[in-house]
Design brief:
Elements lengths: L1 E5 L5 H10 L11 H16 L9 E8 L5 E8 L10 E11 L4 E11 L6 E8 L7 H16 L7 E5 L11 H11 L3 H8 L5 H6 L5 E2 L5 H5 L9 H10 L2 E6 L6 E6 L4 H4 L2 E7 L7 E9 L3 E9 L2 H4 L4 E4 L1 H7 L6 E6 L6 H10 L9
Length: 367
């Protein structure tokens, strides 16, 4: 049984090992013990805080094997990106260059430094052991963050975004960085990626171009990777789409990776979230896969993927039949409440439509 929980300082060694294994390097998961210690301590404080608005808070989660105790994944969540400084990204713009005399009217693709993402909530720091990629485990460690958002909605912004890895080669070289970033910083992509610690450092505004970059003037190799996700991040990209994220007009200022955004209240884990009462079950129920989360005082936040009866069948009783192993992973007992959201929004769409047609109760809050 795999489950997600809050990271603690006891996890430092395992998280540091995952950070060293991440390729390409992640600025949101630095392979530095002191930096990771600071982030874990900040996360522990955030879990204990009782916030009522998006502030300078961040949360770090780990994916754990219930049987062995091994940690096999991690992800993080940020209440307000860039707090208290701006969060920088390139915005895709179209500039018009026209001359009536020459009968010229040209639309030119340009990249403009922008900080409109500042203040939005952010998903970051996603890593999962390669042996688990391609299964529901990746959905669990990624989307548990949105389950936490659903349970503490007041602590997060109206919009959320995720910055995915752009194209790099086997040596970690980014074509976009070589064409743009290196010209201004004079250093390797990896060095600046680590130094940035995000995209809100003052030196970014001091060094990066203040005026639009005309894309047609960039090398073809750099133009080709604009907004393209690295093959190693394709799984994360697909998981975000399942959650309800969409590509936006922004790209990363370092490697031109895509920025995906969503209205928080329209994401699958928030819009389709429901409260159910835990019931005893000798074995897994027949139904569909759900993200199931608890936030008890003893165990703190926990999240698993479990098979539950679909909404149309559970609505009358509001129950979540869970076996003993699942209840232990969540730290709950029969009679406790849990929050549930279907894992597969697109895969189960036809099933929900059929259930809605067969049920007279209004389902407006679930769409």
């Amino acid at each position: 049984m795999l489950f997600v929980r809050a990271a603690t300082l006891a996890d430092l060694d395992a998280i540091a090992q995952m950070a060293r294994a991440a390729r390409p390097v992640l600025h949101s998961l630095p392979a530095d013990r002191d930096a990771l210690r600071t982030r874990i301590e900040a996360s522990e404080a955030s879990f204990l805080a009782d916030g009522s608005a998006p502030l300078e808070e961040s949360w770090l989660f780990v994916l754990q094997h219930g049987e062995t105790g091994a940690l096999v994944g991690t992800s993080s969540l940020i209440a307000a990106a860039g707090y208290p400084e701006p969060f920088y990204a390139f915005r895709n713009d179209t500039l018009i260059h026209a001359s009536r005399e020459l009968h010229v009217n040209r639309q030119i693709h340009a990249l403009t430094m922008a900080h409109e993402l500042t203040g939005m909530s952010r998903l970051a720091g996603f890593y999962i052991d390669p042996s688990l990629r391609g299964g529901t485990a990746a959905h669990l460690i990624s989307r548990a963050r949105m389950m936490y958002v659903a349970m503490h909605r007041q602590r997060f912004a109206r919009q959320v975004f995720s910055l995915l890895l752009g194209i790099t080669d086997a040596s970690g070289v980014s074509p976009f960085w070589e064409a743009v970033g290196r010209k201004f910083f004079g250093r390797d992509f990896r060095d600046i990626e680590i130094a940035s610690g995000g995209r809100s450092r003052t030196f970014i505004a001091e060094v990066m171009p203040a005026y639009p970059l005309y894309v047609p003037l960039l090398p073809v190799s750099a133009q080709r990777v604009l907004g393209e996700v690295d093959p190693g991040a394709r799984l994360a990209y697909d998981i975000h789409l399942e959650e309800g994220f969409e590509p936006d007009r922004y790209v990363d200022i370092f490697d031109a990776g895509p920025v995906l955004t969503a209205q928080v209240d329209r994401t699958a884990s928030v819009a389709r979230n429901e409260t159910r009462v835990v019931a005893d079950a000798a074995a897994a129920a027949h139904g569909v896969e759900y993200l199931v989360a608890s936030d008890g005082q003893a165990e703190g936040f926990r999240c698993v993927i479990a098979t539950l009866p679909p909404l149309a069948h559970a609505r009358s009783v509001g129950q979540a039949p869970l076996d003993a192993a699942t209840r232990a992973a969540l730290g709950v007992k029969p009679g406790d409440t849990v929050r549930c959201a279907p894992v597969w929004r697109r895969r189960n769409a036809h099933r929900r439509d059929e259930a809605d047609d067969a049920d007279d109760e209004d389902t407006g809050d679930m769409r």
